Amino acid sequence: xxxxxxxxxxxxxxxxxxxxxxxxxxxxxxxxxxxxxxxxxxxxxxxxxxxxxxxxxxxxxxxxxxxxxxxxxxxxxxxxxxxxxxxxxxxxxxxxxxxxxxxxxxxxxxxxxxxxxxxxxxxxxxxxxxxxxxxxxxxxxxxxxxxxxxxxxxxxxxxxxxxxxxxxxxxxxxxxxxxxxxxxxxxxxxxxxxxxxxxxxxxxxxxxxxxxxxxxxxxxxxxxxxxxxxxxxxxxxxxxxxxxxxxxxxxxxxxxxxxxxxxxxxxxxxxxxxxxxxxxxxxxxxxxxxxxxxxxxxxxxxxxxxxxxxxxxxxxxxxxxxxxxxxxxxxxxxxxxxxxxxxxxxxxxxxxxxxxxxxxxxxxxxxxxxxxxxxxxxxxxxxxxxxxxxxxxxxxxxxxxxxxxxxxxxxxxxxxxxxxxxxxxxxxxxxxxxxxxxxxxxxxxxxxxxxxxxxxxxxxxxxxxxxxxxxxxxx
Length: 475
Description:
Elements: H1 3-13, H2 24-36, E1 40-43, E2 49-53, E3 65-70, E4 93-95, E5 98-100, H3 108-122, E6 130-135, H4 143-146, E7 157-160, E8 168-173, E9 175-184, E10 187-189, E11 195-202, H5 220-231, E12 237-244, E13 254-260, H6 263-280, E14 289-294, E15 300-302, H7 304-316, E16 320-324, E17 332-345, E18 348-357, H8 360-375, E19 380-387, H9 397-410, E20 415-419, H10 425-431, E21 436-439, E22 444-445, E23 453-455, H11 456-472
Parallel strand pairs: 3-6, 3-7, 7-21, 8-20
Antiparallel strand pairs: 1-2, 2-6, 4-5, 5-23, 9-18, 9-19, 10-15, 11-13, 11-14, 12-13, 12-17, 16-17, 17-18, 22-23
C-alpha cells in the first residue's frame, strides 16, 4: 500500500455526495466497491457498513483488527459559492504539498480514513482478518455509532482513522451535546419613517468547534449580536437574523435585516465596527469584515421588547473555552460553541449551540448555563444528541504497538494525547466494552470550513504507519 493508492481512492470519494444524515449514495458506493473487489460486505438498518477481508495464508490465527472511519462529511461552503453538495463533486486543487478545497469543505474528514482502509483491503500485503467499519452521521449526532448492534464487528482491537495531526496518537476524547433554544415572537409594524438595511459580518475563518475552539477565532453570530446590542438604544427594530451553520463549526458569517430611523448613520457605525473587529482579529481572522446590503422596504419586525432580550442573550451567551484540563497541559477541558441562529417559522428563531467536555458533570453544567442565559430572555431550551467521552487507557496494547511502529519507521517518538474534539470511540465502548483502541490520521487543517486541506507528506507517513501496524499485528 502507498499514499498514491490512498489518494486515488479519496479522489473517487470526493465525487460521491455524503452530507451527514444523507449518506445513501456513499453506502451504495461502498457496497459496489466491496463487490468489485470480491469482499464480503454487510449493511445494518441505519446504514453502517462493514467490509471484511479474510486472513492471508499463514495468518489464520491472527486476531481480527477493525479499521474505522465515518462515511459522512460536514458540508460547508462560502456564501458566494454555487456548489450543490447533493450532486456536485468537490472541487479541489493540489498546491504547495496540500490538497485543498478553496470554496467548500474537502471531506478529508473522514474520507481519507475511508480511503486508507480500502487501500489496505485491496493491497497484497499479507495480514490477518480485517474488518473495515464505516459509520453514518458522525458529524451530526453519531447516529451510526449509537445504533451499532452486537456482533456487527467481531474484532476486539480498533484503529479509529479520524484524527487530524500526523505524529500524534490519540487515546481519549471529549463527550458532547447540543443545546438548542427556540424563541417565539410577536410581530409589530415597522415604525413610520424607518428604513430597512441588511448588516452582514463575513470572512471569518471558522473551523472545527473542538480542535480549533482554543484559537480565539471570530464568531460571526456573536459579533453581529454585539453590534445589534450596542445599537439597541438607538431604536433599532429586528426584522430577521441568520448565521452560522453546523453545530460543530464556528460561525463564519451572519446577517441581520433591521429597521432604523437613519440608515446612513447606522451603516456608517457598522463600517466603523468592521474596522474595529478587523483590528481585534487581524491574526486569527484576517478576512473578517462587515458589509451593508440594500433591502426592499419591510413592513413588519419582531416585537422590540422581545427582540432586545433576544439580542442581549445572544451577546451574553458563553462561547469558547470555559476551562483547561488540570491533568494534561494545553488540553481544553470544557468549551461551548454559539454555532448558529436561523428562522424556524414566521415568528420564531432557533439558536443552536454545542458543548464539549470529557467530564459529564462539566459538560452538563455549561449546557445548563447556556440554557439559563437564553431562558432568562424568554427562550425555551432543549438538550439533545449527547454522546460520551473516551477515557484514556495508557496501558492499551494497540497503543503500545503503535508507538513501537512509529519509532521503527521514523526514528522518533509520537505524541500520545487526548483530543478535545469528539470521536465515536466513547460510544463504541458502551457497545463493545472489550475494545482496545487508538486513533491517528494525517494532518488536516481547516476542517468543517471552506478551505479544508490535507497535507500530502503527512498522508505518506500515516499510510506507512497504518500498514506497519496491521501487517505486523499478531506477531
